[in-house]
Structure formats: structure tokens, C-alpha cells
Amino acid sequence: MEPIAVLFAKQSAQGISSQAHQFPNLYQLASQTTGDFMKLRSSPPSPFGRKVKIAAKILGLYDQITVENSDTKDPDDSLRQQNPLGKIPILILDNGEAIYDSRVIIDYLDEIAEKSVIPACGAARRQAQTLHSLADGIMDASILIVYESRLRPENERSQDWVDYQTEKVDRAMIWLEDNCPSMENGINIGHIALACALGYRDLRFSSHWRDSHPKLASWLDEFEAKIPAFEQTKLNPDAS
């Protein structure tokens, strides 16, 4: 796929410059970045980074992105200048602008792509974004559980805190088991986020959730069969 700025340039050369007046915001965006030099700061285990990668692949933009690994624990990593919060993922545009977090990045990619993973309006958009939020919540809680054991000294760890986060995940997984989202109308950002959340559970908590959530496990298998990018972005637990 040609970068959007190139497409606009071709249209202008053909005397169709009215596009710039009809869509001024998009034209301004296209003139600022061709997308050829976007850089994604992330880490292979990050489910939020994986969400961006899968969305970029579906949108046909991944070949315009260079992925650069980051270490959020390293005080000298430049990501702390790119995002004052020191969090990933971050997308660096070719004009040097840094955008974050994953939701903002995907919204931007969806805006410049010819395809879309975010429904335009109405119930479809609300449902996709609500599922997106639920899946992000599973990821957030799961990461906090991992951090509690990996980053906090053993004598400072709180089982109450771990239980609190675990209960969030359990409630969400039970609800999703009873309300598996349909993919018959195509894949949207809610599906992508849910697949990444479940993939992170596989990565960090083995696959025990599958036994107690068979419908959800079948859903993930179906998603993986539909979306090659899921397998392409999978991280071996031994490498994490």
C-alpha cells in the first residue's frame, strides 16, 4: 500500500486538489508524515505492544513501521523522554512526534489506513470499544500481578493486592465465557484486544484458564485461524 501522502500527491498532480479542501485535517496529517519512518517502541512480551502490531498488520501498515525494543526498567532508555510516564508502546512519527498509549496509536493508524478496525459509529463502535476496554483491563490487572512477584521484594509483596487483581480478571473471564463476542461481521479492535489479553494469560499464567473457559478458548482458536498476525506476534514463554 502506498503511503497516504503519496496518494494525495498523485491526486493533486491529476488536478484533484479539491480533496485537500474536503478533508483538510486528513490532508494536513498526510503532509506531515508519510508513515515510511514510523518507529514503534515496545517489548516482545507486552500485550499492549502486540495489540498495536496486530492492528498495524491488519491495516496494512506494518511494513511502514520499525519496531525498536524498550526496557521500561532502564532509566537511560530514551523512552522516558519520548513518554514521560516511561510506558510502552510509543509510536514515533517521521516528524519526531511521539504518540501513546496503545489506544491512541491504533486510533492514529486506523485514521491513516485504507482499512479500519474501529467501527465508525453507533452500536458497533460502542460495543467494540467497550470490549476493548474490558480486554485492556484484563491486561492491566494481569501485568500488575506479574509485577508484584517480579519487581517487588518478597517481604513487601501483598497477597491481598494480588487477590484483588485476580478477582478482576476472574469476573471478566466469566462474563466473556458467557458472552463470547461474534466475529461474523469482521474483526475489530475489541477482538484484537481480547485476543492479546488471552494470549498474555497464556504467556504468563500458562493455559489453565482454557479448562474453565472452553467457549473462550474456542473463540481464541478461531481468532488465531482468522488472523495470521496473532501467530506471527506470539512470544515463546521461554524467550520472555
TrEMBL record:
Protein name: Glutathione S-transferase
Superkingdom of the organism of origin: Bacteria
Classification via CDD domains: GST_C_6, GST_N_3
GST N-terminal domain sequence ranges: 36-117
InterPro entries assigned: Glutathione-S-Trfase_C_sf (IPR036282), Glutathione_S-Trfase_N (IPR004045), Thioredoxin-like_sf (IPR036249)
GO process terms (BP): glutathione metabolic process; L-phenylalanine catabolic process
One GO MF term: maleylacetoacetate isomerase activity
Keyword terms, alphabetized: Transferase
Gene3D superfamilies from the UniProt entry: 1.20.1050.10, Glutaredoxin
Species, as recorded: Cohaesibacter gelatinilyticus
